[in-house]
Amino acid sequence: MVTVLVVGGGAAGLVAAWRAASLGHAVTLVEANGRLGVKLRISGGGKCNVTHEGAPRELLKAFAQDQARFLRPALHAFGSAEVVELLRREGVPTQARDNGRIFPLDRPGSAGAVVAAFEGLVERAGVTVRRGLRATGVTGQAPHLQALQVDGEALSADVFILATGGASYPETGTRGEVPGWLASLGIPVQPWFPALSPIPLRSPRPAWEGVPLRAGVLRLSAGKEGRRLAEFAGDLVFTRFGISGPAALELSQATERARRAGAAWLTYATVATLAEAVDAALQAEQQSNPRLLAETWLRRHLPERIVAAVVTEAGATLSPMLKDLTRAGRKLLVAQVTALPLGEPQAVSLARGEVAAGGIALAGVDPHTMALRGWDNLRVCGELLDIDGPVGGYNLQAAFSTGYLAGSI
Ligand SMILES: Cc1cc2nc3c(=O)[nH]c(=O)nc-3n(C[C@H](O)[C@H](O)[C@H](O)COP(=O)(O)OP(=O)(O)OC[C@H]3O[C@@H](n4cnc5c(N)ncnc54)[C@H](O)[C@@H]3O)c2cc1C
Fold first, then answer.
1. 305 vs 160, 208, 216, 272, 298, CA distance in Å?
2. How far is ligand 1, taken at its centre, from the CA of residue 202, in Å?
3. C-alpha span between 380 and 174 (Å, rounded)
4. Edge-to-edge strand order for the sheet containing 212-221?
5. Chain segment 190-248, per-residue pLDDT in tens
């Protein structure tokens, strides 16, 4: 039996503490908040998309290559089937949606039920939980961590597991300070970087707030006339300051990288075919249906509020009927549906991301144990690691899986 100190009572820390205690170790869990699992409780809009359906090799495809390679042992040890089974045993049955996302069965407070399940597991395993206690630093020198500083107290243990999460939503307790401590001990870290965050635009459309664009493709280019950098097929929604929704969240990290590199430009195609093909179809329609209003044609592809704005802004360029359209008018119509300009992004917020990219560099961590290389008693897990999956239950699964291995002492 060894003494284990787990710092952070979120998804990863709860699993790590439960696992280590189940293996017979004396475990203490320290959490800054007055209650456990605060970020878990707001996950999935309070419904908590706990994981994603599929075998480990399927889930791994959702992650960047280096992250997938790192996560392989963890997902094989404690994958989505294991999470679902554990929750079922704890009285929280789940269901997979058509898109593979797994949620607790639909009922109010389902995220709270997930946290309660883990709290129950931790408690029954005999973990000592100390809530409302914020760690402020660590002392030690490779290969041995000596103590964790907590409110002027130095807590020691045979093994330390850091599960302090990322740096987004700091109000949930994740202030992102821990990589700084580890960097000063010579441990390699990647700076935090925004991910899965809404994208503010330089010229937002507050009048379109709440208007969705569906089933199209969000595209990122290196400037207005620049080359295509990335795209994501999915819905988005206009906000007061820019855009949000699945496509915006998924492209937010690439958008911020492009912006910092000097030039970023966003467009949305509600018709994801080539502009030439749309133009050909429009010309055919001019022949077959000459009196059709340009506005009516646009309305087939864009929401009403956007159509009204496009028509007003186009002014004389857009004749009312298709038969009178000039080449410029046709070009304008085609552009609105194949590359609706959203324009230049502004700085994407680290704080509003569902996850933070960056963290402890994966090269410095043993993927089979989550032990820091060169250290004999220090492990890390969860979002604190340089792992950021897409929306869909992948991030919680990565936290559960890495927490499980970290606790397997
Ligand atoms: C709004 C929102 C919705 C999300 N929805 C989903 C979803 O549906 N599905 C999904 O897979 N992922 C979702 N995520 C992401 C997911 O919640 C996180 O990736 C996951 O919670 C990370 O788990 P973790 O245990 O590593 O960190 P956390 O759950 O953040 O836990 C870290 C804990 O450490 C504590 N802590 C930090 N520093 C200290 C310190 N110095 N001393 C003591 N304690 C400390 C914090 O208070 C916190 O409780 C969402 C995130 C957000 C913000």
1. 55, 7, 17, 21, 11
2. 30
3. 15
4. 199-200, 242-244, 228-238, 212-221, 265-269, 340-343
5. 999 999 999 999 999 999 999 999 999 999 999 999 999 999 999 999 999 999 999 99
Q: Whose CA is nearest to atom 39 of ligand 1?
A: 164
> For 68-110, where are the E strands, in sequence order?
94-96, 101-104
Gap between the Cα atoms of 229 and 248, Å rounded: 14
**Who lines ligand 1 at CB under 6 A?**
7-13, 30-33, 38-40, 42-44, 48-49, 134-135, 163-165, 168-169, 173-174, 354-355, 382-384, 393-396, 399
Delineate the domains of the chain, giving CATH numbers in brackets. Answer: 3-195+354-407 (3.50.50.60), 198-348 (no CATH)
Distance in Å, CA 389 to ligand 1 centroid: 13
The rounded Å distance from CA 245 to ligand 1 centre is 20
Residue 109 is predicted with a pLDDT of 76
Residue nearest to atom 51 of ligand 1 (CA): 354
Phi, psi of 86 (to 5 degrees): -60, -45
Q: Tell me, yes or no, if the pTM score tops 0.85.
A: yes
Tokens matching residue 280: 């050909």
Measure 3 CA to ligand 1 centroid, in angstroms. 24
Indicate which atom in ligand 1 lies nearest the CA of residue 45.
3
Distance 9 CA to ligand 1 centre (A): 9
Q: Which two tokens stand for residue 286?
A: 């001019």
Residue whose C-alpha is closest to residue 257's, from 197, 201, 194: 194
